[in-house]
Amino acid sequence: MALVSLRNVTKAYPNPNDGDPILAIDDVSLDIEAGDVFGIIGYSGAGKSTLVRLINALEPVSSGSVVVDGQELAGLPEKQLRPVRLGIGMIFQQFNLFNAKTVWNNVAYPLRVAGASKEKIQARVDELLEFVGLSDKAKNYPEQLSGGQKQRVGIARALATEPRILLCDEATSALDPETTHEVLALLKRVNEEFGVTMVVITHEMDVIQTLATKVAVMDKGRVIETGEVFDVFSDP
Ligand code: ADP
Ligand code: ADP
């Protein structure tokens, strides 16, 4: 069974202008297999971020089914959603680091929340900072880092609790091309060395072609095409 499976998912938001509800996700079915780097591409407003929030159990679906790691999320009470969220790491366009915490404490944070032991936190944070190449920045604060370094902290923090799934929401959209290339190379290593399944949300074709193996193309809340990147984007 797929690691993430969506069946006939819809998500409607109330219309602020009292009109018909806004159908952010319209009858989407998708299968993301363990080990995939699965790209989701589409223009602004296509529904990509909404889809991420449904997979991450941050919002309930309006109808349909979302199964993550064998667990049906639709209808699950809040308390049972927490362990599902712990199994999913996230990185963001604006990095979302804690600016008042050191690099080291940013990466330690999810482990502290999860109640890990001091020894475990120490070992894991040091190992992750080494993996992302920022051991020498442990005591720095985010504002002292470049954009690429900030995103590497974001990646280390997202991996702290050893999630099976990493959701990347426009993770390189704030970075210049060279830095984008470095971060994409690091994400590729996360997939290859740790076997983390990745869902890569982007509006940039380059990101999909560099990183993803499979892709879904979204438009107006629907998946209009899906398959291997090579097949979807090769000329007919
Ligand atoms: P994308 O990430 O592809 O830019 P979004 O998922 O953010 O797309 O948005 C899809 C559609 O859903 C848009 O029309 C957007 O305005 C609408 N939408 C998203 N979130 C909300 C919300 N919380 N309330 C109302 N409408 C929303
Ligand atoms: P506490 O849990 O009381 O904050 P810690 O021993 O976890 O104490 O950490 C104390 C401080 O030392 C933290 O602010 C952390 O940023 C820093 N620190 C701990 N280990 C390292 C390390 N390996 N490299 C850099 N800074 C570290």
UniProtKB/TrEMBL annotation:
Q: Name one GO molecular function term.
A: ATP binding
Which cellular component, as a GO term, is one annotated location?
plasma membrane
ABC transporter domain location is 4-236
What GO biological process terms does the UniProt entry carry, in alphabetical order?
amino acid transport
Assembly behavior: Homodimer. Forms a membrane-associated complex with FtsX.
Q: Which family does it belong to?
A: Belongs to the ABC transporter superfamily.
- Described function: Part of the ABC transporter FtsEX involved in cellular division. Has ATPase activity.
**What is this protein identified as?**
Methionine ABC transporter ATP-binding protein
Species in which this protein is naturally found: Microterricola viridarii
Give the classification, highest ranks.
Bacteria, Bacillati, Actinomycetota, Actinomycetes, Micrococcales
Counting on the full-length protein, the chain here runs from: 1 to 236 of 341
